[in-house]
Structures are given as C-alpha cells and as structure tokens.
Design brief:
71 residues; alpha+beta; 3 strands
C-alpha cells in the first residue's frame, strides 16, 4: 500500500489508492474504543435504572391498592 503523509498532521496519512485518511496513532484508536465501550455500559445502566423505576412504581401502586382495600 502506498501512503502519503498529511502536512501538519503527524498521525495522519492518505492511502493513495483509495484517498482514505488513516490515523496511525494507535493510542488514540484505543482511547476511542474504550470510550465507546464505556458509553455502551452507561446506556445499559440507564436502561436498567429506568426499568427498576417502573417496577418500583408498580410495587408502590399495588401496596396502595392493598391498603385501600383493607388488605
């Protein structure tokens, strides 16, 4: 493969056959992977928390019904 350096960007090269710009900084790539992975975990935690809120609300409503009807 034939690459050309991009002026003023030490970590970027251009693939001469496709025109694609490629980041050659492996640590940046690993950082991006780590951030994306943690974002997925945060989204799952948010989903789980919302589910727990709904379940707790259902339990509270059932308890209110029991108390109201002399349960």
């Amino acid at each position: 493969m034939d690459y050309s350096k991009i002026i003023e960007h030490d970590n970027l090269v251009r693939d001469n056959s496709t025109g694609a710009v490629i980041n050659t900084d492996k640590s940046t790539f690993e950082d991006i992977k780590r951030i994306r992975s943690s974002n997925c975990s945060v989204k799952q935690l948010q989903t789980d928390l919302e589910s727990l809120k709904h379940e707790l609300s259902d339990i509270k409503n059932l308890l209110r019904e029991l108390i109201r009807h002399g349960g």
